[in-house]
Amino acid sequence: MPTIFEVKAVPSSGKTGFTLDSSGIIKCFLKSPAEDGKANRELIKAFSHALNIPQQEITILTGLISPKKRIKISSNLTEEELFACLNITERQNKII
C-alpha cells in the first residue's frame, strides 16, 4: 500500500533539508527556484535520496504549482519510519 503525506515546499531557501512546521506538516527546504518545475524536481530528488528509493516511486499528487503538496510514495512507510529517514525527531516538532 502506498504512503501519502503532505509537504510544504520552501523553494529558493539556499539549503536542502526537512523539518516539521508547527502544525506537524513536513517542510522541505529547496535550493531551486519555483520556476519551470525546478523545485518539484529537486523535491522528488531530495525524497528519493533521503528514503533511498528510485525517483520513479515518488509522485506529486496535488500542488504542482503550490507550496503545499500531497506526495505519494509507492512503498508502505509508517510516519515514524518516514520521519526517521528524513532525520526528523519528535523533539524538533516540539521546538518549532
| Count of domain modules | 1
Using only C-alpha atoms, the radius of gyration works out to 12 Å
Uncertain parts: 91-96
Q: What is the helix content?
A: 25-40%
Distance between the termini: 31 Å
**Level-2 CATH architecture:** 2-Layer Sandwich
Structural class of the helix and strand makeup?
alpha+beta
Characteristics:
about 100 residues, 5-stranded mixed beta sheet, 3 helices, about 30% helix, disordered C terminus
Summarize the structure.
The protein has 96 residues and is of the alpha+beta class. It is built from 3 helices and 5 strands.
Could you walk me through the main structural features you see in this protein, from its secondary elements to its overall organization?
It contains three helices and five strands; from the N terminus they run βββαββαα. The chain is an alpha+beta fold. The protein has one domain (3-95): YggU-like (Conserved Hypothetical Protein Mth637, Chain: A). A five-stranded mixed β-sheet has the order 2-3-1-5-4, covered by helices on one side. A hairpin with a 5-residue loop joins strand 2 (17-20) and strand 3. It is globular. The model is unreliable at 91-96 (pLDDT under 50).
Write the layout of secondary structure elements.
Elements: E1 3-10, E2 17-20, E3 26-29, H1 38-51, E4 58-62, E5 68-73, H2 79-85, H3 90-95
Parallel strand pairs: 1-3
Antiparallel strand pairs: 1-5, 2-3, 4-5
